Amino acid sequence: QVQLQESGGGSVLSGGSMELSCAVSGYTYSYYCLGWFRQAPGKGREGVANIRSDGITRYADSVKGRFAISQDNAKMRQYLQMNSLEPEDTAMFYCAVGPFWSCSDFRANDFDHWGQGTQVTVSS
């Protein structure tokens, strides 16, 4: 059974930083894509960043230069370092895992398994 568990959410002031982490268990494929999505109230789920098992990353334009995704392959954990946070970043953040090709874009339907989400709130 594949399970994902996010941690690290909370509240921060505008301009602050926060790191999210996601522990993945039970995913047995050697080639995969790990992704972060977010969903603000009243909006659809938006792709934020993803990273392939070979280390190739992709970022949404809205977070380029501010967010950094990384992974620990041995531990099947991924991290999202978020800097220069803005109130517009306030959302529920979800981690996901899917096939290697899922990283070609930010289509949520391409990902097989999801965490429960962690809330990030940025206040001005």
Lay out the secondary structure.
Layout (H helix, E strand, L loop, with lengths): L2 E5 L2 E4 L4 E8 L6 E8 L6 E7 L4 E3 L7 E6 L4 E6 L8 E9 L13 E2 L3 E6 L1
Parallel strand pairs: 2-11
Antiparallel strand pairs: 1-3, 3-8, 4-5, 4-9, 5-6, 7-8, 9-10, 9-11
| Low-pLDDT regions | none
Mean pLDDT: 96
Q: How large a portion of the residues is in β-strands, by DSSP E?
A: over 45%
Biggest sheet character: 7 strands, mixed
> Quick one: overall form?
globular
Q: Tell me the distance between the termini.
A: 40 Å
- Percent of residues in helices comes to under 10%
Taking all Cα atoms into account, the compactness measure Rg is 13 Å
Number of strands: 11
Structural class: mainly beta
Folded structure, characterized:
- The protein is mainly beta and 124 residues long.
- The radius of gyration is 13 Å and the shape is globular.
- 0% of the residues lie in helices and 52% in strands.
Question: What are the defining features of this structure?
Answer:
52% strand; mainly beta; globular; seven-stranded mixed beta sheet; 124 residues
Structure in a nutshell:
With 124 residues, the chain is mainly beta. Helix content is 0%, strand content 52%. The protein is globular, with a radius of gyration of 13 Å.
